[in-house]
Amino acid sequence: MKEISIYIHIPFCKSKCSYCNFVSFVNCENYFEEYVQSLIKEIKLFSKECKNTIVKTIYVGGGTPSILKAESIANILNVIYANYNIDDNAEITVEANPNSLTYEKVKIWVDAKVNRISIGLQAKSNKLLKLLNRPHNYNDFKNAIQQIKRAGITNISTDILIGLPRQKWLNINRTINKLIKLKVNHISAYGLILEPETKLYKQVESGELKIPNDDKSVKFYQKTRKKLEKNGYFCYEISNFAKIGYESKHNLNYWARGEFIGFGVAAYSFYNGMHWENTTSLSEYLKNEFKKLNIEKETEKTAKEEFIMLALRTTNGLDISKYNQIFKTDFKKEYSKQLNKLINNNTVKIENEFLKVIKTEITNLIIEEFF
Ligand SMILES: C[S@@+](CC[C@H](N)C(=O)[O-])C[C@H]1O[C@@H](n2cnc3c(N)ncnc32)[C@H](O)[C@@H]1O
Ligand code: SF4
Fold it and tell me: Does the predicted TM-score (pTM) go above 0.90?
């Protein structure tokens, strides 16, 4: 049976963080129940197309899934279990914000087979959290971690950001020290992307706030990586660090170009060689028409580019034999010009038939060479 992942988007937040451009709406409590009912309809409707598949991972992300009643998340998951074939060892993750997570909520999730929680901290400094308009402080985060563990979940991931305004290495170091002490076993350390149309973008443009320049951010990333590796978190993708055995199976499926179905506002899918998106409009989604937008058939060119881009971001690198097998070609011949240049500059290497990036701080530039 074909293996797939399922992503559920919960597009609601308590407040909007100044840097965030994800599709999430505030002050929409009145729509929560209606949205859950629409999701359930969409999930049931699509199940016919997935008869011969097995679901290996489910990720309820956002937005802020923990903002919903715990029973709503349980309902959504139970509808998936009733309509799809689920692997006995499926990884089932819920994303949470520290201020909207309680022991009781996690208990209900656990009863609905949730076995992993991803919780956003971003930074330890309360001043910085306030500056970013995060709706919680560090103590809320620490309490949330305690409640998650008390409810029986040990597979915990935390997001932090590198390159925030006024951030110094000292701040990042303190954040990491706390996470090590709290024994979270997976850390995503994302480099801040200054997204146009965010409040932070305007604050930086106007000179009100300053963010570290690229050189500084690269140094912060290198130090973060060194520190996390020294403390037993292995870097399995450029922004993702895990204790052995705690890599995110859901993300590994994305990076291996595995198939996935996304449900909800702005969700994205890749299934049967087709890519499509759902509407980004809440009112449109609530009409329950579930139109597939921007449908794109995968071409050999896009498939190759995606394979290269995703594989080079992982620590294992690009499996040359797998590439040759999938695309019935000879990778080394096809890209001999690029490989000669990059190997001579010492930016990539080939080890046991895997192409690996050496200079990870310029991974994106290296990837561009192949396009
Ligand atoms: C969409 S959020 C959902 C998680 C949760 N709502 C939270 O904020 O903790 C997932 C993660 O994306 C990251 N993120 C959001 N905006 C970003 C940006 N502009 N640049 C880099 N990472 C970003 C944050 O680390 C965040 O935890
Ligand atoms: S809580 Fe998460 S999804 Fe919501 S605005 Fe903040 S970063 Fe974005």
Answer: yes
